[in-house]
């Protein structure tokens, strides 16, 4: 999840980058909520919680994601993201890590965007989810998935009209990334101070 200015979490609204249909070849910022609600969902109170992740390899065929993947891909600019390593494989004891670019530059992560109309109010709600792929060598030491991170040369393809840019959903080169262990206070949204990024010793 992104850590620009906040310990981001699902259900919050973020700025994302989409293709500007009014001007060919250009992009623009819009706001969307993290947690994808498919456009075909009819009820506001669905028992199924919004999807926060979509796996590469299935998003082109899954009923939940295929429409958004084919026509509403987007990017989110972030400084980095957090991931948790399951220390004992039980899910009960996890160690958080911060992941970012080695040179400190921002990254652009691939997302799916969908627009859902609330049947009760008529309100249009834009939501998104994170697209994940197998991990690179760095991320494989702590987790079996990672976000799809796009190179600048691939931004236009990802948000463009191409129906299935499957070759872009691949692990980002690990030699351009860095990772460090941080304290568990990052797990609470109440802790929104810069020191959540401070490295801790093994």
Question: If you had to describe this structure to a student in words, what would you say it looks like?
Answer:
The chain is mainly beta. It has one domain: SOS response associated peptidase-like (hypothetical protein yedk fold), CATH 3.90.1680. Helix content is 5%, strand content 34%. The protein contains 2 helices and 11 strands. The protein has helices spanning 66-71, 155-159; strands at residues 13-19, 27-34, 53-55, 73-78, 80-86, 94-101, 107-117, 124-133, 146-147, 149-150, 177-181. Strands 1, 2, 3, 4, 7, 8, 9 and 10 form an 8-stranded mixed sheet that branches. Strand 1 and strand 2 form a beta hairpin. The longest helix is centred in the middle third of the chain and has 6 residues, at 66-71. It starts with 12 loop residues before the first strand and ends in a 21-residue tail after the last strand. 29% of the residues are buried. Mean pLDDT is 90; it is low at 1-6.
